[in-house]
Amino acid sequence: MGVNMLIGIGFESLYKGLDYLINYEEKQKEVFEKAKSATEEAAKSILDLKSKMSDTSTKTSELSAKFANLVQGVNPLTNENKSLSTEQYEEFLDVNNQLAELFPSLTHNYDENGNAILGLSGDVDTVTASIKRLVEQQNNLAKADMRKHLDEYVNGSDDADGIFKVLEGQNKEVKDAENDLQSLKDTYNGIIEKKGGKYFDMDGHAYQEYLNDIKNKLGQEAYDALYNATVTGEGFGGSKTYAIDFSKIELDETSKGKITESYNTFYGDLESTLDTKKSELKAKNQEMTNMMIWIEDIGLYKDSDNEYFQKAIGSMVKSIQWSDVDVEERNLDGAKQFIQKNVLNYFQKAANDPEAKLRLTDALRNLFTHNIKGLNVDVARTKIQKFCFLKLHQTLRNFFRYCLLIQRRHEMISETLNITI
């Protein structure tokens, strides 16, 4: 490779690097928007599959018992009616075809009238068990697809980043909106109270942009006041310097009134923008929580004899603000490890001790069925841990004392915890 070619490659790499640094904010915005679009698509795929699974389970539970009983009066290999009444046979064909729609692979053939032949035979319990296995098999296939989409949702793909990049971007939008609001407030107070100032050194362009921005937000009166309070000087190489000394501002009451009116209007707009950005971030945090579908398959959560473990685990996971937590690895494994460490491990310890599990279950039962009010968001996130794992030795009576103490100290947050009030 020639020297000139090496130099050319070096300049090209340098150019690309400089271009990236100069346009960093814009490129990060592009990455954010791309990740946002990709995660929304992955989330929709997961929710669609989850909804389809739920619909299939619901419909099958309605059809299973009917079919299992009706097929006893039919030849399952031909659909020939053996002992059903005309009305019953019509119901059988209807249920039969609905099952065929739900489970296309179940159809072995068709009878002379075009009805699917499912070939499910045996007594009522056998047929019911066969249908149940079909549901499980179909759900397992759906879950495999969901896990694939979940990986794309959290980890991203070759073409786009995942949800943590989206949360990072939305967090930045909230902080930018907060900074815009505070900046406007500081500028307004500086103008009205004649305190503070703004220094631009030799950057006349930044100085003029600042004045134009103030004009757009606070009106011509504010622009004129700042322009008249501008102090110029001489900088390096004889270049002109610019500064605005707010103590030099002169305003009459009429001008102050007009500036205040513009300020109130623009401040309201910025507040609205900030509320919108916060709502979007909250919704995205909740979306990520809803994507943690793997929790539903762990034994601790599926413990059928303990619905209160499910409620407690679900409530704690729902309270996680993924945009704020310190996840060691910003990927799916990192998210799983965070939930395992901060939620599941504690419940697992109690579940492994029969006596502790009984006390915990009793406590959670009362927690989710009594009037427990007065928890702020931070307490909501740690409440179950505080009691379950630091106060397991306490009696139930002391548990209610604890709850009443929290009730007096904090504002109600029953909605956050989904507690029945």
Broad structural category:
mainly alpha
Average pLDDT, to the nearest integer? 82
What is the rounded Rg? 33 Å
State the separation between the terminal residues, measured CA to CA: 76 Å
| Helix run count | 15
Judging from the principal axes of the Cα atoms, what is the shape? elongated
Can you describe what's shown?
This protein is mainly alpha-helical. 70% of the residues lie in helices and 6% in strands. It has a 3-stranded antiparallel beta sheet. It is elongated. It starts with a helix and ends with a helix.
Provide a short characterization of the protein structure.
The chain has about 425 residues and is mainly alpha-helical.
Which helices and strands appear, and what pairs or packs with what?
Blueprint: H1 3-22, H2 24-70, E1 74-75, E2 80-81, H3 86-102, E3 109-110, E4 116-117, H4 124-155, H5 163-193, E5 197-201, H6 204-218, H7 220-228, E6 230-234, E7 240-245, H8 253-291, H9 299-302, H10 307-318, H11 332-351, H12 354-369, H13 377-390, H14 396-409, H15 414-417
Antiparallel strand pairs: 1-2, 3-4, 5-7, 6-7
Record keyword descriptors for this entry.
421 residues, mainly alpha, 3-stranded antiparallel sheet, two-stranded antiparallel ribbon, 15 helices, 6% strand, elongated, disordered N terminus
